[in-house]
Q: What sequence folds into this?
């Protein structure tokens, strides 16, 4: 499929504690690898909020949280590269992570402490407004997967330092053929970048456009390292 390559799962050192690459460098690496854009999905969860000094002020928390995205966007604009805002949420109940698309800065600022509820509460409240994708649902042996609180799942998580059990995520999506199946590199440090992503038929410039493209199923998965999963997704898509 000809088109434009995007990575919907990346992190920055400015915001994510586990991120080791500055935002501008992440963008530059993806440009060198022939991508057209990426989604910044820095971590947003109670632990993140507890480690930054915001005096329990949500707007100050968002000022800090958006630093990675804004630095990425600045460099992306300079290079003609699309940088899109997303988020990776974790709720207090367990270590599951959820990628959220279809948001902007105003959305984040107007929904204080939404990451302090639960996965099901978040889904019940926002499932008509945002796209919720389970990130690496079975990573490192996790078995507590809330199949009724997401619109889909990564079936390819390219992070090389975890047992992601992408095969189990694929089986999850086979049980739920209506789920959106995505792929992302989960970039945190050197060597993580450009391992997986999606191919879109046209460029998108914000999180709403990206969400609409996924919901219209106008995308294909890309990951030479995980080609068998790309092929499995294609077979499910075409019914072959």
A:
């Amino acid at each position: 499929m000809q088109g434009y390559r995007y990575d919907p799962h990346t992190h920055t050192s400015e915001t994510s504690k586990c991120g080791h690459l500055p935002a501008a460098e992440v963008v530059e690496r993806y440009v060198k690898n022939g991508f057209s854009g990426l989604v910044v999905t820095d971590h947003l969860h109670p632990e993140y909020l507890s480690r930054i000094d915001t005096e329990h002020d949500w707007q100050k928390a968002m000022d800090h949280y958006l630093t990675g995205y804004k630095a990425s966007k600045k460099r992306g604009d300079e290079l003609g590269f699309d940088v899109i805002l997303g988020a990776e949420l974790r709720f207090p109940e367990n270590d599951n992570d959820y990628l959220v698309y279809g948001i902007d800065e105003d959305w984040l600022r107007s929904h204080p402490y939404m990451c302090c509820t639960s996965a099901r509460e978040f889904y019940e409240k926002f499932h008509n407004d945002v796209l919720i994708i389970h990130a690496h649902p079975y990573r490192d042996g996790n078995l507590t997967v809330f199949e009724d609180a997401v619109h889909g799942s990564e079936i390819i998580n390219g992070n090389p330092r975890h047992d992601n059990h992408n095969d189990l995520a694929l089986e999850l999506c086979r049980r739920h053929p209506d789920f959106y199946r995505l792929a992302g590199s989960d970039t945190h440090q050197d060597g993580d970048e450009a391992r997986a992503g999606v191919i879109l038929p046209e460029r998108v410039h914000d999180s709403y456009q990206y969400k609409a493209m996924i919901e219209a199923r106008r995308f294909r998965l890309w990951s030479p390292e995980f080609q068998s999963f790309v092929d499995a997704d294609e077979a499910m898509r075409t019914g072959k």
In short: The chain has a mean pLDDT of 95. Residues 67-79 form the longest helix (13 residues). Residues 184 and 197 are 5 Å apart (CA to CA). The chain has nine helices and eleven strands.
